[in-house]
Amino acid sequence: MTAMPRLHGQRGSSMNPDNNNQGQEQSPQRQPSGSHVPMRDHQRIRLEAVSKRWGDTAAVDAIGFDVAPGEFVILLGPSGCGKSTTLRMIAGLEQATAGRIEIGGRDVTHLPPGDRGISMVFQSYALFPHLSVADNIVFGLRSRKVPKAERRERLARVAQLVDLEAYLERKPAQLSGGQRQRVALARAIISEHPICLMDEPLSNLDARLRGEMRREIKALQQRLGMTVIYVTHDQVEAMSMGDRVILMQDGRIVQDATPSELYERPASAFAAGFIGSPAMNLVTLSAAADGAVIDGEPRCSVAPHEAKGHWLGLRPEEIRLLPADAPGVPAEVIDAEYLGADSIVRLKVGSQQLRARLDGRPSLAAGSPCRLQWRRETAHFFDASDGQRLAITGHDLAAPPGRHRFEPGLAGASTQDREARASSYPAGNDSSGVKR
Ligand SMILES: Nc1ncnc2c1ncn2[C@@H]1O[C@H](COP(=O)(O)OP(=O)(O)OP(=O)(O)O)[C@@H](O)[C@H]1O
Ligand SMILES: [Mg+2]
After folding, report:
1. 143: confidence class by pLDDT, cuts 50, 70, 90
2. Is residue 283 within 8 Å of 384, Cβ to Cβ?
3. Among 426, 317, 277, 300, which residue's Cα sits nearest to residue 364?
4. Which sign does the torsion angle of CA 173, 175, 176, 178 carry?
C-alpha cells in the first residue's frame, strides 16, 4: 500500500482520527449544545476578506462570498488564480492568512478540517489501491465506528445511487476512470455531510464521460440537497453545473453571478474573454464623424462618440453576415473553419479581425465582401485602460440614425420590415456573392 497522504495544514496529534483519511471523509459537524439553528442553515458558507499569502505573494487576496444552503457554486478561473487555495482554506487544509470563514454561522477559520462538517472530492480520486470499492466507500464510516449493519445499509443505498452495485468487490485498478470517479463521489456522499467541496473532479476523464458525470453530479446534488463548491477551469462545467459562478483572476473575484449573467453581462474584458468558445471578439474603436467606428473601417459607426478608444465586445454567435449591399459594417471573409453543426468564419473589418459562428457549412470564398450586423443589446463595451465594463449602448445597425447604415431600398421601410429583411439573409445568403 502507498502511505496515506497527509493533509496540508494537518496538526498532528490534535487532529481528529477521521482526518487521517485523505481529506475525503470528515467527522460530522459538532453543533453547539442547545443549538436551535435550522438544519439547512448548517450548510451556509461565508467568506469575509479571506487572504492567503506565501511570502510576498498573495495567492488569494481579500475575497468574500456567501453560499446558500443547497446551492451549487463554481470557483472558475485560469490556472494559478487561487481556486484550489480558496477551497482548501474552506476545507481547513490550508490556514487563511487573514479574514474569516464561517460554516453554518460558526467561525471555523482556525478549526481543523474534521470539525467543519464537510466532505471533499479531489481530482486524483485518492482511492486506496489495496481496498475493494466497497471498503473504499465505507472507509470513513469505519473510522467513525459506524456500526456494521448501518454501514452495509448506507453502502447499498449509495452504490445504487452512483450505479456501482456491480463493482463493489473490485479493486480500483480494475475500474475505468469514470467508475473510480464515482467511487470517490460515493465516499463523499456516504458521509452524509451536507457540504461537499470538489476540486476539478472530472479533469482526468475523457470528453464523453465528463459530460455524463457533469449531469450525474448535478442530479445527485439536487436530489440530496447538498451544498457544493466546485473548482474548475473549464467554462463548460461552470456554465452547465453552477447555480452561481465566481470567476477569479490573480487571487481576486472578477465577477460573482449566475451563468447567464456572466455570459450576457460580463463585468470586464477578462470575464468576456473567459466565457464562450470561441471567446467574445474584442475590437478597438476609433473616432469618426458620426460616432465610434471599428478601427480602420470609417464607413459605419457602431456606437456613440464616447465609445472611441475603447473596446467593442461581440459574441461570435451574435454576428450576422449579410450581403454586401445590405446595411451594416463592411467586412471581408478571411476563411471559414467547419466544425460540423456550425462553422467559425474569420472576418476582417478595417484593421481588426472578428470571428462569427454560423450554422452549418457556409461556402464563403476568401476575400468575399459582406456586411455585419448584430442586435444592439448584444454589443458590449469595455474600458481600454482597465478592462471594466462601460455603460454604453451601441447603435442599431439595422435601423440606425446615420446615412451609412441605410440600405437604399429600405430607407422608408418600417423597423419590422428591416428586421424581417435582415433575418431573411441567413449567414451568407446566396444573393450576395457570399454563398452558403
Ligand atoms: N504551497 C504553496 N506555496 C507557495 N505558493 C503556492 C502554494 N500553493 C499554491 N501556491 C501558489 O498560489 C497560487 C494559487 O494556486 P492555486 O493552486 O490555488 O491555483 P488554482 O487556481 O487552483 O490553479 P490550477 O487551475 O492550476 O489548479 C499559484 O500562484 C501557486 O503557485
Ligand atoms: Mg487547482
Report:
1. confident
2. no
3. 426
4. negative
* pLDDT band at residue 39 under the 50/70/90 scheme: low
Is 314 within 8 Å of 374 (Cβ atoms)?
Answer: yes
User: H-type helices in 173-326, by residue range?
Assistant: 177-190, 207-224, 235-241, 259-264, 269-274
Residue nearest to atom 17 of ligand 1 (CA): 84
Find the mean pLDDT for residues 369-381.
95
Task: Answer for the pair 99, 47: CB distance below 8 angstroms, yes or no.
Answer: yes
Task: Say yes or no to pLDDT of 184 above 70.
Answer: yes
Over residues 273-281, the mean pLDDT reads 92
> Strand, helix or coil at 277?
coil
Report which protein residue has its CA nearest ligand 1's atom 27: 79
Q: Is 79 in the pocket of ligand 1 (CB under 6 A)?
A: yes
The share of the chain scoring above pLDDT 90, in percent, equals 63
Q: Is the CB of 385 under 6 A from ligand 1?
A: no
Between 134 and 176, the more confident residue is: 134
- Whether residue 298 has a cis bond before it, omega within 30° of 0: no
Q: What is the reported pLDDT for 427? A: 39
Task: Please give the mean pLDDT across all residues of the chain.
Answer: 83
Q: Which domains does the chain have, with CATH numbers?
A: 18-28+40-264 (3.40.50.300), 279-423 (2.40.50.140)
Q: Which residues surround ligand 2, an ion (CB under 5 A)?
A: 84
Residue 84 near ligand 1, beta carbon < 6 Å: yes
Residue nearest to atom 10 of ligand 1 (CA): 59
Q: Cβ of 99: how many Cβ atoms within 10 Å?
A: 17
